[in-house]
Specification:
The chain is an alpha+beta fold. It has 4 helices and 6 strands; from the N terminus they run ααββββαββα. α3 packs across α4. The longest helix is centred in the N-terminal third of the chain and has 31 residues. It starts with a helix and ends with a helix.
Length: 191
């Protein structure tokens, strides 16, 4: 009898927790009312909140670094931060390596995860910018596997999962700089 009571109590607690999770999550994240859908929706909602937090932190950092009202190609001086000394992109790079290239226009972070490259770009919303980034990636023989775009007000976060092609010998810093240059060309055309 006590085993049945314990199981009922566990189910009651689980149902209460699911009700709380469901009430805290916007309804369009939860497709159905079953446990798996509720948990899956909550996970997606938390991921999106994390992306928005990253975008806000980057926007705050960019505002504190650059009090000027707009980007100028003359003042665009990217800063590199290498996260690992051996950062040649290749299909056998299975540990996580990374580099970043930040400027007053955009923050670009490149990491290797398994046999893919994770590219994160945080910037102000610029019409056509995602197409320019995709063009840069394709011109460097990368294949875009997944793209996620999150925005809040005028700040946008682009997250690319990119397949590394065989024989690729591009460094992470070079890739970050190529993506950063796509913003420079936009700044020049805006003048």
């Amino acid at each position: 009898m006590s085993h049945i009571a314990v199981e009922r109590n566990r189910r009651r607690q689980m149902n209460e927790h699911l009700k709380v999770l469901r009430s805290l999550t916007p309804c369009f994240y939860i497709k159905r009312g079953d446990q798996a859908s509720i948990i899956g929706g909550v996970i997606e909602f938390i991921k999106e909140l994390h992306q928005v937090l990253q975008a806000l932190e980057s926007q705050k950092r960019r505002k504190s670094l650059s009090p000027s009202p707009g980007p100028s190609p003359r003042t665009l001086q990217p800063n590199f931060h290498q996260l690992d000394s051996s950062s040649i992109i290749g299909p056998n790079s299975f540990k996580e390596l990374g580099a970043s290239c930040n400027s007053s226009v955009a923050d670009v972070e490149v990491k290797i995860s398994g046999s893919n490259v994770i590219l994160k770009v945080i910037s102000q919303r610029i019409p056509g910018q995602v197409a320019r980034i995709v063009t840069v990636l394709e011109s460097l023989s990368f294949e875009v596997l997944h793209l996620n775009i999150s925005s809040m007000e005028e700040t946008v976060l682009y997250q690319f999962v990119v397949k590394i092609e065989l024989g690729c010998q591009l460094s992470l810093e070079e890739l970050a700089m190529e993506v950063q240059q796509s913003f420079c060309s936009e700044a020049i055309t805006m003048l």
